Amino acid sequence: MSSKQVIQVINPNTSLAMTETIGAAARAVAAGNTEILAVCPTQGVPSIEGHFDEAIAAIGVLEQIKIGREQGVCGHVIACFGDPGLLAAREMAQGPVVGIAEAAMHMATLVATRFSIVTTLPRTLIIARHLLQQYGFEHHCAALHAIDLPVLALEDGSGLAQEKVRQRCIQSIREDGCGAIVLGCGGMADLAQSLTRELGVPVIDGVTAAVKMVESLVALGLNTSKHGDLDYPIRKNLSGQFERLN
Amino acid sequence: MSSKQVIQVINPNTSLAMTETIGAAARAVAAGNTEILAVCPTQGVPSIEGHFDEAIAAIGVLEQIKIGREQGVCGHVIACFGDPGLLAAREMAQGPVVGIAEAAMHMATLVATRFSIVTTLPRTLIIARHLLQQYGFEHHCAALHAIDLPVLALEDGSGLAQEKVRQRCIQSIREDGCGAIVLGCGGMADLAQSLTRELGVPVIDGVTAAVKMVESLVALGLNTSKHGDLDYPIRKNLSGQFERLN
Amino acid sequence: MSSKQVIQVINPNTSLAMTETIGAAARAVAAGNTEILAVCPTQGVPSIEGHFDEAIAAIGVLEQIKIGREQGVCGHVIACFGDPGLLAAREMAQGPVVGIAEAAMHMATLVATRFSIVTTLPRTLIIARHLLQQYGFEHHCAALHAIDLPVLALEDGSGLAQEKVRQRCIQSIREDGCGAIVLGCGGMADLAQSLTRELGVPVIDGVTAAVKMVESLVALGLNTSKHGDLDYPIRKNLSGQFERLN
Amino acid sequence: MSSKQVIQVINPNTSLAMTETIGAAARAVAAGNTEILAVCPTQGVPSIEGHFDEAIAAIGVLEQIKIGREQGVCGHVIACFGDPGLLAAREMAQGPVVGIAEAAMHMATLVATRFSIVTTLPRTLIIARHLLQQYGFEHHCAALHAIDLPVLALEDGSGLAQEKVRQRCIQSIREDGCGAIVLGCGGMADLAQSLTRELGVPVIDGVTAAVKMVESLVALGLNTSKHGDLDYPIRKNLSGQFERLN
Amino acid sequence: MSSKQVIQVINPNTSLAMTETIGAAARAVAAGNTEILAVCPTQGVPSIEGHFDEAIAAIGVLEQIKIGREQGVCGHVIACFGDPGLLAAREMAQGPVVGIAEAAMHMATLVATRFSIVTTLPRTLIIARHLLQQYGFEHHCAALHAIDLPVLALEDGSGLAQEKVRQRCIQSIREDGCGAIVLGCGGMADLAQSLTRELGVPVIDGVTAAVKMVESLVALGLNTSKHGDLDYPIRKNLSGQFERLN
Amino acid sequence: MSSKQVIQVINPNTSLAMTETIGAAARAVAAGNTEILAVCPTQGVPSIEGHFDEAIAAIGVLEQIKIGREQGVCGHVIACFGDPGLLAAREMAQGPVVGIAEAAMHMATLVATRFSIVTTLPRTLIIARHLLQQYGFEHHCAALHAIDLPVLALEDGSGLAQEKVRQRCIQSIREDGCGAIVLGCGGMADLAQSLTRELGVPVIDGVTAAVKMVESLVALGLNTSKHGDLDYPIRKNLSGQFERLN
């Protein structure tokens, strides 16, 4: 139980500032024997705000999963609310892989009958909708909201995006008939705890939730199933830029 | 992170042997700073194999939740696969409450695309079906199976029930197109780890899963939402045998 | 067809006033050969406004079902809109058991393509939502509304709650795109007929609906199935306060 | 309660023998003050075994509804398991209209957690599937079976079809995990009671179920909602053969 | 590919003006080798605004399908947004049959993640709702709207209905979070192209969509499956007015 | 209508043989004025048999979409049964983008009430399952089957895979209660027509279906909606290997 273990927290975009925010949030909740390795791809998109961005980010996630596996990490977190590349990453990984959207949504259903989601740009709402459907939580979601600011506004130091998130949470609690809020962006990881305290309802960040989920799975000895459709990718000649994924 | 904390693991039936099995399983995965308080009601049913049994067990769960809260435990586990009294318990509790069916199902979706359930008596399958629907995991369940032995057969020392569970797991993995197995009874808690090793696929027990879930929620500062429908029960004159729930 | 028969109408809370309201409503629609036995538990909660209350009420329901069965009643109604203890009661009963929520919802789908629900406290809405899902009527429900008054306000003699129900029905008909209203509380049983007349749309009370459902099932010779998961509870040593359920 | 009332039971096909079977079954369960008016269209199809047959039958149903309304009947039953023309009939009717498929399915969910359907030709199964989806009972149906004999085989006097139904019921109870059987054809109306007795599980016929449903709705004062989409058809010049529907 | 082929476009109502509108729209998109045969029943309803109207229209559709098949058309379009008689028509037809509601909905899901529907009278919304459920597109529909004018207002020459459609489309795009609009009436067929251009989002008409769908199916050699439940109707003695459907 | 137009058919894997098979199938059904541009990525995976392969293939798809858009093609087909990168491709494209899984599934629902899917490796079944859920066709799918041979076995010239597909189709038609078969791999494109003829039921290939779908959308003037979540990707600094996607 107390032997050292490393959890790789992958920010799928290339923003170092956000990687730091995410890493710090992860460390704040990690168990004493867990070391957090916060990484991001060297190549990719600076922020993820649509399916195109996600497709690119998925490659970065896979590269990091491969590196993490070679480094012997015990599990992986995909720290973008769309969980880009999740099932592909599970194929590649030996240990557990948890996305922050799924982690936050799962946790939310344990402390409230229904939750609302507060995210960044309206165009990303469809990604959250599809995840709710895929994970089975449509009936547990009271409403989805976007503050209509881009992801990187969370890193501009002005605090404007943070204040908009806060306002939207307050309004959701009043109007949606929800018992908890899920924050819909990895860049909001540092807001969850203070909002939970201020608003008196669970405000859930996926980064921290996913770290605890991975720790839990590791403690239970539960790795990604290699029986069936999450088995390691069939060995093939990957060509060009993808060779290094071999 | 490292201050002492107590998690109350409630076996909703009155079987002391099963309470011990459950408590031992819980302790085996608990974090270093977690103390497991394994309890069961003093009054109730010796095993839970239907809705009637569950209705009775729910009262025992509520009594224990009340005691646990007064003892200052940080969270609660309901250690029967039907999660009896779960939402009522959440109303009564301050900390998080996690049922072992939901914990096992949640965990299963993180390591496999589809799981099968192996439980005891056929008549309990409907309870699992309803939970799959309520939790949102119908699409993640490949099949449900019953070994057709009562719950307490798991405590008779013969190992017969255990062997039937094992056989049913093996068959499920071969035939169901599932990547993981969820064990459908708190009394199977001690089988998960050895079956996982032997069969090479995640075999998931809800007791241990729920303990890690509660630890995770506590570490994240996430208590049961008291905003809305899981708020504390409205104070009323409970009469007769229920007075002590006041 | 014309031999005497007794239907037991169980008010799951301990309010005698409400038991009387319910009994009177039941009698007003019962067939000539049906005698209504309106009962309530001697121990329990004075009103039911959440899952905790429901868990307690379920025990009272089971006690009454047992008494009713011993008295030779032909069927049972559970007269609280959450249908507390319904499946457990079906295990225990020989004759049919019908909850008032299910009865009202079923009836509503026969006279309108979509219905709205008007109930008491907002915190009970989640119970109605879950029942809609369990019974299969999510697509038939246009909207759910709460008048934000407790159940017992319906018994305070002021008529305030009744007026709020009426207003909410009128607004629902105008705005929801529904063709019928389901009243979401046993204590509203006496309002259905006058509202139906005044508003010119079916306003459906579950108590009366359930009585007719039970009469129908009895006339058809349809008892609760004892094949499979609604079979009588497996005989066990029930301990303490639950002994009398044996 | 005891004033005379007439329920119109419409056999949507033109088989007089089947109309008689259906009428007799209806009369056997009708209340003392209910007169059963068993009718069938003068023009149409001799049996209904597909969507084409249903489309034709729907016109016959509407003609009979119009006649019934003019005769002052209190409600209508559509006695074909596909419930042909149900919503159109509700637009046309003042009183309640109940289809035998919906009646049987509703009743089945009240006495068992899951039911199986036994019907005639395989090609009619899709109609039952669609009704399950439309009525919300997909989760309550364990399996659908066809005896692979045409509807009119039930009227050929040989008893072969009846025996095949019986065999299929027995097998369903053994294998499907269901607690009740729904008979999927109006022509099976006379089998329900004896099969219920022989097999010891509820075997449900829709004709008798629908009669009791209509009686119940009438007793409750619940007519088809004329607010919204079931309002009377907008008056139009119906031309040619349809003029008489004006 | 380039041999002549005839597609029969059936306006299920008897309005010749609307048949012309529909035929013209169909011709505007038909391939060079496709001849459009725009027909309507000689007997029936002048417009379709409810289930009753649909039941009558279905007969007209079947008569036309029969005629079309005898004329050797390669496929059929049912040009009313409720797709009346669709499955019955498929039984009767050899070639493909496509309804305009399904065609428009299918197309919409190919160019947008979610679409809104704009139709005529509120009472027809339920028909669209049921089709969304039957076709599987509930999750792809953002909202349904009615302009509250009857179908034939589209043919009164005033342009009022057309302007209301346009206004409702503009509002939907602004408020619904949809990426495309589906026009919910065959009589709006001539509006799609100009609205698409003006509003800059796909505004989809089902008549034109269905014509292209039928052409596609024909080019692929895909006829209506005669294996199973869409096989030709079983030969029977159709009596009276239905004889000519034999 | 008759001006020249180019449809880009993208084989997302790098197999030139399969690209040729796909291109030939596409050309065989293309309209006279349609030129088929069959392409595949220069870098990527030789075949796609899991989520990992799909994630890589998605990048190749996006690169080709970009090239195609610059070449002025009128629309795009993604010719792999998992529709990899579909929504990302729609963001990037101006014209319509259609995946072969969605095209085949849509077409299948137009000619049969239920279809079965026959694909290659069992591990790809989960991808088809998820697409059924996402596209809304779960209820239209009777069964999913895998022949348990890898994708490239279709290109080995032995005909073994083709024969296994044929056998599986025959068995499906006999046992599944389906009216049509959907072929679950782009490499089966050349089998559809002969199997349709031999088996007498629609056997549907997505490549050809998608070509006709794109032609249809183009003829209707329907491009991918740029209003909302399928708008062009927000301009960002794509780094490293992804620069060329800018």
TrEMBL record, chains A, B, C, D, E, F:
Family listed: Belongs to the HyuE racemase family.
| Alphabetical list of InterPro entries matching this protein | Asp/Glu/hydantoin_racemase, Hydantoin_racemase-like, Iso_Racemase_Enz_sf
**Species of provenance:** Erwinia rhapontici
Query: Could you tell me what this protein is called?
Result: Allantoin racemase
Residue stretches spanning the membrane: none
**A Pfam family name for this chain?**
Asp_Glu_race
| Domain of life according to the entry | Bacteria
